[in-house]
UniProtKB/TrEMBL annotation, chain A:
Coiled coil: none annotated. This is 3-methyl-2-oxobutanoate dehydrogenase (2-methylpropanoyl-transferring). It is an enzyme of class 1 (oxidoreductase). Residues 4-179 form the Transketolase-like pyrimidine-binding domain. InterPro entries: THDP-binding, Transketo_C/PFOR_II, Transketolase-like_Pyr-bd, Transketolase_C. It comes from Methylobacterium dankookense. The keyword tRNA-binding does not apply. The keyword Protease does not apply. Keywords: Oxidoreductase. GO terms for molecular function: branched-chain 2-oxo acid dehydrogenase activity.
From TrEMBL, chain B:
Its EC number is 1.2.4.4. The keyword Oxidoreductase applies. The branched-chain alpha-keto dehydrogenase complex catalyzes the overall conversion of alpha-keto acids to acyl-CoA and CO(2). It contains multiple copies of three enzymatic components: branched-chain alpha-keto acid decarboxylase (E1), lipoamide acyltransferase (E2) and lipoamide dehydrogenase (E3). Pfam families: E1_dh (PF00676), OxoDH_E1alpha_N (PF12573). Residues 6-42 form the 2-oxoisovalerate dehydrogenase E1 alpha subunit N-terminal domain. This is 2-oxoisovalerate dehydrogenase subunit alpha. It catalyses: N(6)-[(R)-lipoyl]-L-lysyl-[protein] + 3-methyl-2-oxobutanoate + H(+) = N(6)-[(R)-S(8)-2-methylpropanoyldihydrolipoyl]-L-lysyl-[protein] + CO2. Residues 82-377 form the Dehydrogenase E1 component domain. It comes from the Bacteria. InterPro entries: Alpha-ketoacid_DH_E1_comp (IPR050771), DH_E1 (IPR001017), Oxoisoval_DH_suAlpha_N_dom (IPR022593), THDP-binding (IPR029061).
Length: 337, 410
């Protein structure tokens, strides 16, 4: 199997879908000729021409708004917002339009649209290149929200997202674009090529949306994580020696509650980890669901490790980012509780 | 230089408020037939003047004059008159229905009937409108069943939208009528995307975007113009300037620009202003803009100059912010009366036939209303199933919605 970084896997997913389905179009700021500021669309314009992959004006509501119209026509647009931090001007189009076209028109008009956006911190991105706005999308009826954590999943999930008949918010942890990151910012980075998840099948393969993956089996505590935090949680388990069962949610909506509940029923404990700010973050929904579903199995309070309720700072990056030490402490406290 | 004075904020005010004498002297009305009709492949700069004038066909006597006239037969015009009369009658009946409690809400088109009715006539099957809540003439002129419209307004068991949408936010793909959203201006940029898609697929269909004067202040209006201009999308960008955005006069949205049409010029989009109460002029300009789009010459911006005679909606009372008689003073008159007079002058219509037509149309609308009411109104009869509430959020119902539907016990 070819080995791919996350950037290459994402590009390959679009390449595969553009070759398979001539209604797939890709556009966004700097996405065309230049191939994207993260190189995720590199070569696509050359291969498929300027009417299939093109540069857009700097207007997020314009990008998503035109994409909604294209989807209503019958295309499958896969558009890029350069940073998730800049999706807010498109929020009206996403919430009021893309998410509701099917419902409000009783299925006359649908919106098979993918909005890709780099998300997450850990790169000294400061306030506007680090945010994790997933809770703003999981709260919206009609949207699906996906966050991959490795190249294999990224390709399989992006292909599934493009093929999905409903709008999908596809959040790509940019910290993971070129290699896994476990939060140890002081250690040298290893590229994806040394990680087994960089074995990515060539050609078409799709992973179902709404299915979590157990990335580490364990018995002491269940860790619910997604994106970069999957790797941080793995490091925390290894460093504390706690036999944690780590679940990579992969899709936030629809959520694989069965896998989550089965794990918590087994371990009796649950730690939820995300980069996004704590209050009203997706972790709150997860905690509520685990509490409702697994109340009689729980042997300790559900813990949440998240970004602090502050804008994402620059100099204080590693005090903000929920690294393996903080996650490890939460694991220990939950297991001992 | 004089001393610098303290700054003062400029807040535009309409010329007249309730109790005052209506004054439209600031609306410059050129003579019918005075504005030239350029070739469709002309550039925006060459027709700059057209963004500041008003294209008119019907003159004071009811004659069709000038280069924009002569496109429609008497049969076409009688058709157009019937569409406008139907829309006006429909509005009156639905307004009454709302007052009778058969529905929660309605929005009428009084005075603006020519715009959507005449525009629809210039489109071809397969073209797609992206309307606001005040273009039901597009549906009526395309033959959409009145009873289905009323079922939507009543949210009854035959409501095509299953009771999920507010009244008048219709949807009909087969009639080229994109699902109306309550969020203003969103559809303007979607129309551009739809048109881009048609061009990407080398199709021959074009899109029509619709917006009101007030909503041009929304950011999606600007996004739509830049995307339409950049990609030369086959779209007609319509602005219905009815002078009012609820209680706010058009000067609040205009930002001191000469006209709304002039907004197009900065984007290199050919821009025209047209008498929105002149069925013939609306149709002629629509046809010109549609032909430009169809020939891949790019977008056109059209401002329809009209007046919102009725209240904004059934929840609004205009006497609180404008003179009661302001609509009588509107210099472009009434679109139905103007077309009627023209047809009579042509010898193609008469007062008697008009009365007869009005009676027939009223009968048709009442029959549609009865049909719709046999399926219930908002507060009487069967409602769309509560199960429908959970359907169509996604193509396939995800587990969490299945659980919620179960909990709701429906």
């Amino acid at each position: 199997m070819p080995r791919m970084s996350m950037v290459e896997a994402i590009r390959d997913a679009m390449d595969v879908m553009m070759a398979r389905d001539e209604t797939v179009v890709v556009f966004g700021e700097d996405v065309g000729y230049f191939g994207g500021v993260f190189r995720c669309t590199y070569g696509l314009q050359q291969k498929y021409g300027t009417t299939r992959c093109f540069d857009a004006p700097v207007s997020e509501s314009g990008i998503v708004g035109t994409a909604v119209g294209m989807a209503a026509y019958g295309l499958r647009p896969c558009v890029e917002i350069q940073f998730a931090d800049y999706v807010y001007p498109a929020y009206d189009q996403i919430v009021s339009e893309a998410a509701r076209l099917r419902y409000r028109s009783n299925g006359e008009f649908t919106c098979p649209l993918v909005v890709r956006m780099p998300t997450g911190g850990g790169i000294f991105g400061g306030q506007t290149h680090s945010q994790s706005p997933e809770a703003l999308f999981t709260h919206v009826s009609g949207l699906k929200t996906v966050v991959p954590s490795n190249p294999y999943d990224a390709k399989g999930l992006l292909i599934a997202a493009i093929e999905d008949p409903d709008p999908v918010i596809f959040l790509e942890p940019k910290r993971l674009y070129n290699g896994p990151f476990d939060g140890h910012h002081d250690r040298p980075i290893t590229p994806w090529s040394q990680h087994e998840a960089s074995d990515v099948p060539a050609g078409h393969f799709a992973l179902p949306l709404g299915k979590a993956s157990v990335v580490r089996a364990g018995t002491a505590v269940t860790v619910l994580a997604y994106g970069t935090m999957v790797h941080v949680a793995q490091a925390a388990a290894a460093e504390t020696g706690i036999d944690a069962e780590i679940i990579d949610l992969r899709t936030l909506i629809p959520l694989d509650l069965d896998t989550l509940a089965a794990s918590v029923a087994k371990t009796g404990r649950c730690v939820i980890v995300h980069e996004a700010t704590l209050t009203s973050g997706f972790g709150a929904e997860l905690a509520a669901l685990v509490q409702e579903t697994c109340f009689f199995h729980l042997e300790a309070p559900i813990a949440r490790v998240a970004g602090w309720d502050t804008p994402y700072p620059h100099a204080q990056e590693w005090d903000y980012f929920p690294g393996p030490a903080r996650v490890g402490r939460a694991l220990a406290e939950t297991v001992e509780a | 230089m004089a001393d610098i004075m303290p700054l003062a904020l400029h807040v535009p005010e309409p010329a007249v408020r309730p109790g005052g004498v209506p004054d439209f002297s600031s609306v410059k009305i050129p003579k019918a037939g005075a504005v030239p009709r350029p070739e469709v492949d002309i550039g925006s700069e060459a027709i700059r003047d057209l963004a500041f004038s008003i294209i008119r066909v019907l003159n004071r006597n009811g004659e069709a004059v000038g280069p924009w006239s002569g496109l429609l037969t008497d049969d076409d015009l009688r058709d157009g008159l019937r569409h406008m009369l139907t829309l006006r009658t429909f509005d009156a009946r639905m307004l009454l229905s709302q007052r009778q409690g058969k529905t929660s809400f309605y929005m009428q088109h009084l005075g603006e009937e020519a715009i959507s009715c005449a525009f629809q006539k210039a489109l071809s099957p397969g073209d797609m409108n992206f309307p606001t809540y005040r273009q039901a003439g597009l549906l009526i002129a395309s033959g959409y069943p009145l009873a289905a419209m009323i079922c939507q307004i009543y949210s009854n068991i035959r409501d095509p939208l299953k009771g999920r949408q507010l009244p008048v936010l219709y949807s009909s793909k087969p009639h080229g009528f994109f699902t109306v959203s309550g969020n203003l201006a969103t559809q303007y940029v979607q129309a551009v995307g739809w048109a881009m898609a048609s061009a990407i697929r080398n199709d021959t269909k074009i899109a029509a975007a619709w917006i009101g004067d007030g909503s041009t202040a929304e950011s999606d209006f600007h996004a739509a113009l830049v995307f339409a201009s950049t990609y030369k999308a086959p779209v007609v960008l319509n602005i219905v300037n009815n002078q009012w955005a609820i209680s706010t006069f058009q000067g609040i949205a205009r930002g001191g620009a000469g006209t709304f049409a002039a907004r197009g010029l900065g984007f290199g989009i050919p821009a025209l202003r047209v008498d929105g109460n002149d069925y013939l002029a609306v149709h002629a300009v629509a046809q010109w803009a549609i032909e430009r789009a169809r020939r891949n010459l790019g977008p056109t911006l059209v401002e329809y100059v009209t007046y919102r005679v009725g209240a904004h909606s059934t929840s609004d009372d205009p006497s609180a912010y404008r003179p009661k008689t302001e609509s009588d003073a509107w210099p472009l008159g009434d679109p139905i009366i103007r077309l009627k007079n023209h047809l009579i002058l042509q010898g193609a219509w008469s007062e008697e036939r008009h009365k007869q037509a009005e009676a027939e149309i009223l009968e048709t609308v009442i029959a549609a209303q009865k049909e719709a009411e046999s399926f219930g109104t908002l507060h009487s009869g069967e409602k769309p199933s509560a199960r429908e509430m959970f359907e169509g959020v996604y193509a396939e119902m995800p587990p969490h919605l299945l659980r919620q539907r179960q909990r709701a016990g429906v």
